[in-house]
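Input sequence (219 aa), recorded before submission:
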Amino acid sequence: MADEPDNDTQDNTAQAPEAEPDTAAAPETPAAETEQAPEVEAAEAPVKEAPVAEAPSEPAEPEVQLPPKERRRAARSKHTEARQPRSAEERHAERLATRRAKAISRRARRLSERAKAAERRANAPAAEPLAPVHAAVEGARRVRQGIVVSDKAEKTITVRIDIARRHRRYEKIVRSSSTVHAHDENNDANEGDVVRVIESRPLSRTKRWALVDVLERAR
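Predicted structure, token format:
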């Protein structure tokens, strides 16, 4: 008898109705929507790209220095502004204006350069005279005596100079003669006269002597 209440308690517990779920808590979501939700979230999330490894930077090549003519040509090729067609008179007038402007600038530059040069010359100290390298000494000119053999040329006489000297080895008297052309300013000497001539500067292609005086007249 003591076990009966226990059995009743177990029956009541077994027959008790289960608690109904709260329908107002949250509406049920379809299974399809539940499966698509993570895909949409994954699509909306920003995609993080993997960092790209940067290639090692190559050393920049040095720019080639073009000559001035090539640089001007390159600058002209970059000129894209189209000029209006001009007549021959307009081009000629433009050339004249350009030349006139250049002439004015050249004249101004030259005047300034001349003024600067004159100022430098005025401010420069006086130059000291240079010492002579060689002393101004005139050498002894040779004087010879001879006989006039021709006086046909104008202001020129031909003189034969006789030379007699002893041979250095055989001690024999050796006689020789030479002919020179001498300058006679007054045509004073005649053929056969004994004259004295002196060495001078070149007076012509063959004259290197000048008449000093007439020692003896021809008979």
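Checked by second reader. The chain has a mean pLDDT of 80.
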